[in-house]
Design brief:
Elements lengths: L1 H6 L2 H4 L3 H19 L6 E2 H18 L5 H4 L6 H17 L1 H9 L1 H7 L4 H22 L24 H31 L2 H16 L10 H5 L2 H13 L9 E2 L4 E4 L2 E4 L3 E2 L3 H4 L3 H4 L15 H9 L14 H18 E5 L8 E4 L3 E4 L2 E6 L2
Antiparallel strand pairs: 1-9, 2-5, 3-4, 6-9, 7-8
Helix pairs in contact: 3-4, 3-17, 4-10, 6-7, 6-9, 9-10, 10-13, 10-17, 11-13
Length: about 375
């Protein structure tokens, strides 16, 4: 765990900010091309996954798959990840039932290989091995996300085998694609569904642009953090539509705990639902069911109390280690989207927005119309 958190510190992920800028520009250029024809809205959920796919493979393997440019899932990584999410969601919610099953010889030898999840994992491993080989053979030497993790070639108390590094990379990829997409889609959807909020966000970004406090062509991460209403919208989206949707089970530590008049012995499995916790009116206010960024602009003390109960990236020692990279990605991208475009929902008969709560929130058919701002 030390390895993962050190690798994902903000100091470490900032090494890739300039490379991320090129993908933000490519994404906005693709939207600009589609915005020319008002009769051609785009499925924002697909385009976001392609952007995240390109970004991840660039910083991890040094090679983008150019999904945004091609407007398709080059390499099939997105499809493979979605093939395994149903199984991973069941395992996360009911580990006592599914973990023994997954580990059984019958399952591994005869049943698993016939599932979509098996084919998805197999494809992800094959793609990883191929891209790793290309990276090692490349003459272009630039930093990669996991290049500072001790491997079996550099023995230490924190050594990871090549197989373990592959597993860590694939797990990180699943969070970097679907986990971050699970934030970006509801952020945009919540903003455009509330005109007063949309107007306030647009006004703040426009004023920052007028005051020349946003870099060009892409705002820096630090600059996005200095937009108070935008950051309130980020916090409210994390609360209202947390990317992590599982109940996050944990075992009680020794010797046990006293809670609400009950003694809970060690090794008892407990869990909490982010959806329910984030709608606790005693913590987030009587309007906890509503999307209202202004709740984060009252005072620092209230924010600290709300953040204490926030489970948007998990909680405790097992909090998502990639949250810093996620913030770097979605803050920079979203500021540029609302800086450059007017956005509205597009109606496509028979293709309504679909939202599923799996291990993470999943979105499809997020049809939007963009107009470039002059």
């Amino acid at each position: 765990m030390v390895i993962r958190f050190t690798q994902c510190s903000m100091k470490m992920v900032r090494r890739f900010e300039n490379r991320l800028d090129s993908h933000v520009i490519a994404f906005c250029d693709a939207i600009k091309q589609r915005s020319i024809d008002p009769q051609k809205p785009l499925d924002f959920s697909d385009h976001i996954r392609w952007f995240l796919n390109d970004t991840f493979n660039d910083v991890v393997h040094g090679q983008s798959l150019a999904c945004v440019l091609a407007e398709r899932d080059n390499g099939g990584l997105v499809r493979s990840l979605q093939d395994i999410y149903t199984l991973s969601g069941f395992v996360a919610v009911l580990p006592n039932v599914f973990v023994p099953l997954v580990r059984s010889t019958l399952w591994k030898k005869y049943l698993f290989r016939h599932t979509k999840a098996f084919r998805g994992i197999q494809h992800l491993c094959t793609q990883y091995d191929g891209m790793k080989l290309k990276r090692e053979q490349s003459m272009e030497k630039k930093p990669h996300f996991f290049d500072r993790i001790p491997s079996c070639n550099a023995p230490s108390p924190q050594t990871l085998t090549a197989e373990a590094i592959r597993a860590e990379t694939i797990i990180f990829m699943s969070a970097a694609l679907e986990g971050v997409a699970a934030f970006i889609s509801p952020f945009v959807n919540n903003i455009i569904q509330h005109p007063p909020i949309y107007a306030s966000l647009r006004a703040e970004i426009a004023q920052a642009e007028k005051s020349a406090v946003l870099s060009s062509p892409v705002a820096t991460y630090d600059e996005t953090c200095r937009l108070p209403y935008f950051m309130a919208c980020v916090s409210e989206t994390l609360r209202h539509d947390a990317p992590a949707q599982t109940i996050l089970p944990r075992y009680v530590s020794k010797p046990g705990i006293q809670a609400h008049g009950f003694w809970i012995p060690a090794a008892t499995e407990m869990a909490a639902s982010p959806y329910i916790i984030h709608r606790d009116k005693g913590i987030f206010g009587e309007d906890a069911d509503a999307f209202r960024p202004e709740r984060w602009m009252v005072d620092k003390g209230r924010n600290e109390r709300m953040e204490k109960y926030g489970m948007w990236f998990g909680y405790g020692d097992r909090e998502c280690p990639g949250k810093t990279f996620a913030h770097l990605e979605f803050q920079k991208l979203l500021v540029e989207v609302f800086r450059r475009f007017d956005v509205e929902a597009a109606v496509i008969p028979g293709r309504d927005l679909r939202h599923e709560r799996w291990a993470v929130a999943m979105f499809w058919n997020h049809w939007l119309q963009f107009r470039e701002r002059v």
